Amino acid sequence: MRAQFVLSEIGVGLRRNLTMTFAVIVSVALSLALFGGAVLMGQQVNAMKDFWYDKVNVTIYLCNKNDAGFAETCSKGAVTAQQKEQIETDLGKLDIVESVHHETADEAYKHYREQYGDTALASVVTPDQMQESFRVKLKDPEKYEVVATAFSGRAGVHSVQDQRNILENLFNMMRGMNVAAVVVMGLMLLIALMLIVNTVRVSAFSRRRETGIMRLVGASSFYIQMPFIMEAAFAGLLGGLVACVMLLVGRYFLIDAGLSLAEQMPLVKFIGWDAVFSVLPLVLVIGLLMPSLAAAVALRKYLKV
């Protein structure tokens, strides 16, 4: 009987404040969708870092005959065969080196044409302008400084480049987007909490006569407050469900269909459905608990009869 009464009170409260309940559902859904998106974005950045950092190389660019006026180590002209042999020998002595690949000027020119063959600049570039290089695969990419210190400034070496620096700009941009999503999520969450508190206050005020009677007949504070808390929890749960749908639809249309980023960017390792499904329970729990706690706190102030 008591459970039936509580459920009937929940239905009454939701009908009386239908517009505000809808606003709570929408704001909770948007804030939780942004929360889930921020979590997934963080996982995406970590997945890409693990994927690409394992594949990037340290590149040791060697001097060619055109570098004499641009690098002090190339003042004597192109790298000699003896210098190349010594560099390769020294690389083989380093424990952190997994493999070394020597790329000739002709190979570098071929790769350049494959990437930029349609540009105007590519039509005037010749093989003798390209630099030979050693592509060094490290066992631990974090040990780049060991190679840079050992070979930078050496005769015949033009420069030493860590390819991680190129990727770091992309990761920093994605981290910035993630921070922006968290900030917007925080604002939406604040709006949702304010709406929940206001909805509870209006609902408590509109039913002050009923709650006063319940108090007179000996009902406990918990029994009186339960319908209001469950109304907020129900609205929050609906918002959490909507947020879950938004995350699933967003993952499908962004990666698998619609924009189909997986096809347009085949070299990028995108997070799978398992990552999305692992976030959904957390979204639902927050959607259920956050409004409940906000309502409980609000009732301590507004439900005094």
Q: Could you walk me through the main structural features you see in this protein, from its secondary elements to its overall organization?
A:
The protein has helices at residues 2-16, 18-53, 81-93, 105-116, 144-151, 164-206, 208-216, 221-256, 261-264, 273-302, and strands at residues 58-62, 97-103, 133-138, 157-162. With 305 residues, the protein is an alpha+beta fold. It has a 4-stranded antiparallel β-sheet with strand order 2-3-1-4. Helix 1 crosses helix 8 (221-256), helix 2 packs across helix 8 and helix 8 (221-256) runs antiparallel to helix 10 (273-302). The radius of gyration is 31 Å and the shape is rod-shaped. Its main location: membrane. Residues 183-304 form the ABC3 transporter permease C-terminal domain. Keywords: Cell cycle, Cell division, Cell membrane, Membrane, Transmembrane, Transmembrane helix. Residues 56-160 form the FtsX extracellular domain.
